[in-house]
Amino acid sequence: MTYQAPWLSSTNRNRHGRGMRRPMFGTRLPHYRTRSGMFDDMVAGQLKRLNEAWPELMKPVEFAVEDVPPSTPTPWDEGDRTLSQGFAANHGIPARVVLYRMPIQMQSRDRIELQFLIRDEVVMRLAELYGRSPEEIDPMWGV
Question: Which spans does this entry mark as compositional bias, Polar residues (predicted)?
Fold first, then answer.
């Protein structure tokens, strides 16, 4: 089955039957992407960049994006985990890194700062999981 864009199909009519429903702007324009979609794209870009440099470190780790951290932390959780959290591998479950989208977006003022903040969080959590310094994984960390 091939995908057909909604504005090309003839069955989409507005509720009063006066005409075709069409998006207000094209799907390739920047306004089509939501803030969460752009955040996911930025995370994917950082993961791709790090995977090219460190494939042996990135392959066994799962990455996820959540909107907000859980409101009730477990008793064994320690430290500040407002922006991201790393989970070590145990009992057949691979190591995981979870980034919290809304706190990270609230910390940044623009897209460039957001990209740097995402980069720093991913690198910091990888460094914690492997017991390395963040500068060893990414020399530009924190700059």
Answer: 1-12
> Does this model's pTM top 0.85?
no
Block residue for tokens 């959290």: 85
Question: The domain containing residue 51 runs over which residues?
Answer: 33-137
74 confidence band (pLDDT: 50, 70, 90)? low
The pLDDT-based confidence of 71 (bands split at 50, 70, 90) is confident
Total structural domains within the chain: 1
CATH at 78: 3.30.2010.20
3 falls within a domain: no
